[in-house]
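Risk register update: the risk that structure generation would not scale has been downgraded. Supporting records follow, first protein first.
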Amino acid sequence: MNNQFISKGFLILVVPIVGFWACSRNPYKNSNKQYQQQVKQLALSIKENPIEKWASDSIKEPPYWVGTTNFNLRKPSFVIIHHTAQNACLQTLATFTTVKSAVSAHYVICKDGTIHHMLNDYLRAYHAGISKWGNLIDINSASIGIELDNNGFEPFDSLQIKSLISLLAKLKSTYTIATANFIGHGDIAPTRKNDPNYRFPWKTLADNGFGLWYDTVLDSIPQNFNPIQALRIIGYNVKDTNAAIQSFKRHFLQDITKRLNHTDKVVLYNVQKKYW
């Protein structure tokens, strides 16, 4: 099986030469065509000169348009990891190629490690929904979404995690994404989402440079330690404190309870210090 993925072009499918995928007919021909049409429409919008006609007499319009020579494409600064909550990669690909679903991601990684690059990294996917991290509320506009084929109640396959780490290394290098900015859907939407589930190996990712983790030797909690403030410093939305606590514990302690015991607070304090 070839787990390599091609970096050129917009739609990239990596397929093993077995079973369903051995068929020469592309079952996603129609959705691929629609993808190209939408890309062309976006390209036309970008090509237009940004000339404004102000609807106010108080704004003086210039006699001619002046375009700056200093610009580039906007780059993603976060990676958000999800589980699909579906039962197979084919089911997720069908969901992401159906207009009515209104959901998508840049990458889908199957259990066997196959990587489907479904959307150009510079384009905005519909994966984060209503979410918040720190002061950032439009996470779709600043992130790459990665979906892992997992129904939400099972461990993650080692081949899948191996492919994920390879992909994250490429994304981190290409877009200079900060180590702290590799997080989960449940982190940014604690009242709505729990993915990737508590079995996800966040420490393995952190050991490879994707996401922060606490030290082996933990410092004691100071007397004035405020756990809710610590969660806020890390980035969690603490409007619902129980949901924020549960999200933190799912990520860092593989625990889905909503109360902080002493050990939890020690870990929280040490994680918080990483974000200062």
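Supporting record for the second protein:
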Amino acid sequence: MKILRAIKFLFYFQLVSAMFLIAPASWAESPVPAEVSDAQQVVARLHDALIKAMRESVSLGYKGRYELLAPVIDQTHDIDFIARTSLGANWTQLSSEQQHTFIDVFRKLSIGTYAGWFKEYGGEQFEFVEQQQMPREQVMVRSKLVPPKGEPVRFDYILRHEKAGWRIVNILADGVSDLALKRVEYRAILQRDGFATLVDMLRKKIVLTEQS
């Protein structure tokens, strides 16, 4: 199935490029108690929207998928936290205007990436595997995208609790951390070429998601 191959290729390509791999299994602690099952509901909300985007991909087009997914991403992801974490200590060196610009562009790219990836449907379904407690009072919700034929893709979500409830702060596809890849790529560009180049690179990626 094309979407599964594309997701695997993209993550593995970024992994080789960044030469960075995270092994989340080593973080796992005891199973999560029942009272934090709201975390799974957050992931389920995202999955439902992704399946809908895939099923209605032709009629929606890229713009329609983007508009469908945008409010769901805002509700299920802590975009501000992910954006800040991707830059690490460099974040505090940016002006307030630069921080606002980065979060805005980062959000658009995050939504656009989902809209660009999840555009075909061939009977795939998301299945939950388990929940695990993580360090720093975070939770991992483990799942997989299962096609009618072929190997499934593992999607493990790291969530943290905030005032608005549980929010996704990292996603691992077949064990590869999306946040870790971003941290390596973004920090290198920022330190080597500066803020304007980093933002320009993200905007170019947004254009590519529209054309994918």
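Residues 2-13+30-211 form a domain with the Nuclear Transport Factor 2; Chain: A, fold (CATH 3.10.450.710). On this basis the risk owner (M.S.) recommends closing the item.
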